[in-house]
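User: Okay, second chain of the day. Same drill as before: sequence in, structure tokens out.
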Amino acid sequence: MTIEVFESVWDALVDTPTEAENMKLRSRLMIAICEAVSAWGVTQTEAARRLGVTQPRLNDLLRGRVGKFSLDALVALAARAGLAVHMEITLAA
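Assistant: Same drill. Structure tokens below.
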């Protein structure tokens, strides 16, 4: 029996390193947006209004349904949440 060890859950769940990297970025953005929304201390309806989305769409975000959001959509939501998104590019190990 061989035991595989992965750096990230996304490395284990998706087929390619490219997909894993995309999912890592999307999940990190989702977490940051969820934390910002939580800090507002408002209802989901009000938070959805502030973000310019429907309440069901916000619910998808808050429940971590990462597959329902593109990287572009999450960057836009982060900006609407008052977050600045910065990108760092380095050589892969």
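The CA atoms of residues 3 and 66 lie 27 Å apart.

User: Thanks, on to the next one.
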